[in-house]
Specification:
single chain; alpha+beta; Alpha-Beta Plaits; 3 domains; four-stranded antiparallel beta sheet
Length: 243
């Protein structure tokens, strides 16, 4: 806008100078310069500039316009948007699982009518696939302790055992049997307790794998209750809180 005003004034001055010098034709009716100035609209607002004054005025206009973007850039940045908090009447995060591949498909089918797709995230979590159960007495007292307990087992009529060695946390533990099912392992534990053997434990063993689990965020308490009722129908897949 300042450039427009400047150039308009400069053009007006140039036109006035040209007219006065006769470039635009000779003044008619013997009219003199004072008379022509009286016929101008607001002649007091017109100022004739020299070339040096015109250049200074143009430089001042350009400097002012260049300063405008810099002033805008130094304005204070907008305040960061505050994180959206979960409403107090909603459950922040719950997780169901882990599920086997077949159980995951069945679980997804059963919860389809809850319309939770927008709030559901599928994740992979570590899971131990139990292929056997070890019935054993934990290490106690190193090699001497294992030998002492082996002697006690023989005194109570227990003959089927061996002292575990090798480089593992179970070094100098006493193995009492390995079973495929938990019920068979617990049956031996009960039998040994009747024989007076104390401290017997069952250790599930098997490879570590990845299984599917499902997380749900910002859900209603009623929906959480329904999810829990469905998840409890699958082994090791009960609902729990998550971050």
């Amino acid at each position: 806008m300042l450039k427009f005003v400047f150039w308009a004034l400069l053009a007006a001055n140039a036109a006035l100078l040209a007219y006065g010098q006769g470039v635009l034709g000779q003044p008619g009716g013997g009219e003199r310069e004072p008379a022509r100035l009286k016929n101008q609209l607001a002649p007091e607002r017109l100022t004739q500039l020299t070339a040096v004054e015109a250049k200074r005025a143009l430089d001042a206009v350009e400097a002012e316009e260049a300063a405008e973007p810099q002033a805008a850039a130094t304005e204070a940045p907008a305040a960061p948007t505050a994180p959206v908090a979960v409403a107090p009447d909603l459950v922040a995060c719950v997780q169901a699982g882990p599920f086997s591949a077949a159980d995951a498909r069945r679980f997804e089918s059963r919860i389809a009518n809850l319309d939770l797709a927008a709030r559901q995230t599928r994740v992979e979590v570590p899971f131990q696939e139990v292929s056997s159960r070890l019935v054993y007495l934990p290490p106690n007292g190193g090699r001497e302790g294992a030998q002492r307990r082996a002697a006690e087992l023989k005194e109570r009529g227990v003959e089927n055992f061996y002292i575990m060695q090798g480089d593992s946390p179970l070094r100098w533990a006493i193995s009492l049997g390995v079973f495929k099912t938990d019920s068979a392992a617990q049956k031996l534990v009960t039998q040994l307790q009747r024989q007076g053997v104390r401290g017997v434990q069952v250790l599930p063993r098997g490879p570590q794998v990845q299984r599917a689990a499902y997380q749900y965020r910002a859900i209603e308490p009623g929906v959480r209750t329904r999810l829990a009722g469905i998840a409890d129908g699958y082994p090791n897949a009960g609902l729990r809180s998550c971050e």
